[in-house]
Amino acid sequence: MAPQETRDRPGLRLVLEMGPLVVFFVSNAKLGIFPATGIFMVAVLAALAGSWFLERRLPVMPVVTAVFVLVFGGLTLWLQDELFIKLKPTIVNVMFGTALLVGLALGRSFLKVVLDSSLAMTEQGWRQLTLRWALFFYFLAVLNEVVWRNFETDTWVTFKVFGVMPLSIVFFLVQMPLINRHALTEEPAPSDGPVE
Fold it and tell me: Residue 190 pLDDT > 80, yes or no?
């Protein structure tokens, strides 16, 4: 498989991103939160290795997420306290949202840096999409806090797998009118021959 191929195969990318969460869900159901956390950490590293093997690059957001999974997962296992793994999504989402807003304040769209190879949009489009994603990350952070503080651990794990990803997909689809409205169209190549 060529290094670029997963960029053209969203299904494979989805497997690499969702795989560790599914492994976490199944492991938690069968073994409990602490063994599942350790398995989750290994699965995240395996997904990064898979990305590197297939694309010869490591996507920014999964790398940052993996670092937090390893740190907070390690604390969860070391201290035998599931609080840390439950706090990880809140902290990561707040960090992503804040980074996007800081970028906008500095006149840059960090979302464009991450997605530029996938989308071609006007600067205004990137600013609007970046603001929306920043607010969505904050929404996910608040939602994570509500779920882990008010429900059992198994419910929280289920929410992580079957709640966050579908919400993210729906949110992305809702952005399609904005993306289409600000899409850059390719200029036709100049003709070398005479104009008829």
Answer: no
